[in-house]
Amino acid sequence: MKKIFSSGSFKKFNYIYCTIFVVLLSTILLFICNTLIAFSTPNELKGKTILIDPGHGGIDGGTSSGNLLEKNINLEASMILKSKLISHGAKVIMTRDKDISLENLCNDNDYRHRRDLKSRVNMINNNKIDVYLSIHINAVANAPYVNGPMVFYSNANESNKTLALYIQKSLNAATGINRNPNIADYFLLTNAKKTGVLVELGFITNNSDKNLLQSREYLSKLSDGIIDGLEKYFKNE
Asked: Which GO terms describe its cellular component (predicted)?
């Protein structure tokens, strides 16, 4: 009978077979481990409803530097944040998702800017949300050296302060600054009846911040910091 395989060929075939088996087994085990980790890792944002308010819009450009308008940075950062929150299992409500102002949503006999703010407050108060985030860009004319994100909150309830502390701490870690959140009496903060904060992502009057705020990569980094703060807040509430 003709010999089909030599002993050397058989050993080579056996080696290839064993290698394929080990690779397949490793792939299956890795898939199982990743699946178990995904199911065992707590997802603090799953099922939460977050309202994002990109400040200004439409006729209201917010603060500016040359052709760079706050309203556009606010919207871009908010859309990045929205996408990331959804990927974490959260539901997101936007006060605006395009370049518009919101004064037409309020019929009060008041000036345009106040009606715009009232519309945002009404969306916060009339929706079932867990927290709201109002996204803005800061400016200070006489101190161009001031930089970095700042978180503002109303002291109307303790949960506002707690949320502000977590988000500010996470943004500090993301950007390398050392700052505490601040109490503010902004119209939106003082009239909103839900837990939330106003986040100033940086200073358009600081050259470094100005350049960074035009980078999607940096805005994504800030979004990760905000999400980290949210996760810690919900974990410990």
From this structure: outer membrane-bounded periplasmic space
